[in-house]
């Protein structure tokens, strides 16, 4: 069965097989979800925000331990979250890009 995931802020939407991880779906969609551990729940770089998690697999014990209080704020590890029904996921801005964007914005204000 196919399900769809919409990534924000890009709006890219892809259809994937039910049970696919968000990380795998992100690769298919061309989303820049960061990873250094290739999906082994070790690097914590693949954090994404999923406000309505009804379409996702439940938070695993390992994922909860790794995310800490971020799990309570609807963050998930893309590599551990499997898609069971249509869902929307917000991909945080790359921290380095965010720093550069803020720097450029502050220079424009001067
Ligand atoms: S890809 Fe490293 S924790 Fe998810």
Notes on the structure:
- The structure is a single chain.
- With 110 residues, this protein is an alpha+beta fold.
- The chain has a single domain (2-109), classed as Ubiquitin-like (UB roll) (Roll).
- Helices cover 27% and strands 20% of the residues.
- The chain is built from three helices and five strands.
- The chain has helices spanning 22-29, 61-67, 95-109; strands at residues 2-8, 13-17, 47-49, 75-77, 87-90.
- The strands form two sheets. It has a three-stranded mixed beta sheet, with helices on one face. Strands 3-4 form a two-stranded antiparallel ribbon.
- A hairpin with a 4-residue loop joins strand 1 and strand 2.
- The N and C termini lie far apart (54 Å).
- The mean pLDDT is 94.
- The structure holds FE2/S2 (inorganic) cluster (FES).
- The site of FE2/S2 (inorganic) cluster (FES) has 13 residues, from loops.
- This is 2Fe-2S iron-sulfur cluster-binding protein.
- Residues 1-95 form the 2Fe-2S ferredoxin-type domain.
- Pfam families: Fer2 (PF00111).
- It comes from Ferviditalea candida.
Detail the topology: elements first, then pairings.
Elements: E1 2-8, E2 13-17, H1 22-29, E3 47-49, H2 61-67, E4 75-77, E5 87-90, H3 95-109
Parallel strand pairs: 1-5
Antiparallel strand pairs: 1-2, 3-4
The structure holds FE2/S2 (inorganic) cluster.
FE2/S2 (inorganic) cluster (FES) binds at residues 23, 35, 37, 39, 41-46, 77-79.
Major sheet: 3 strands, mixed
List segments where confidence is low: pLDDT < 50 over at least 5 consecutive residues. none
What structural class is derived from the secondary structure elements? alpha+beta
Helix content: 25-40%
- What strand order characterises the main sheet? 2-1-5
Order of helices and strands: EEHEHEEH
CATH class, anyone? Alpha Beta
Backbone CA Rg: 15 Å
CATH fold call = Ubiquitin-like (UB roll)
Outline type: globular
* CATH-defined superfamily: Beta-grasp domain
Mean of residue pLDDT? 94
- Ligands: FE2/S2 (inorganic) cluster
Instruction: Note the gap between the termini.
Output: 54 Å
Tell me the number of strands: 5
Strand content: 15-25%
Number of domains: 1
Number of helices: 3
CATH architecture: Roll
Domain 2Fe-2S ferredoxin-type: 1-95
InterPro entries: 2Fe-2S_ferredoxin-like_sf, 2Fe-2S_ferredoxin-type, Beta-grasp_dom_sf
Protein name: 2Fe-2S iron-sulfur cluster-binding protein
Pfam family, one: Fer2
């Amino acid at each position: 069965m196919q399900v769809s995931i919409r990534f924000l802020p890009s709006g890219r939407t892809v259809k994937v097989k039910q049970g696919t991880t968000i990380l795998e779906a992100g690769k298919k969609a061309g989303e820049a979800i960061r990873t250094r551990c290739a999906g082994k729940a070790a690097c914590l770089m693949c954090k994404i925000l999923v406000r309505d998690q009804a379409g996702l697999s439940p938070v695993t014990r390992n994922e909860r331990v790794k995310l800490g209080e971020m799990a309570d704020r609807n963050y998930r590890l893309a590599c551990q979250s499997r898609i069971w029904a249509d869902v929307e996921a917000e991909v945080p801005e790359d921290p380095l890009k965010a720093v550069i964007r803020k720097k450029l914005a502050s220079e424009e204000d001067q």
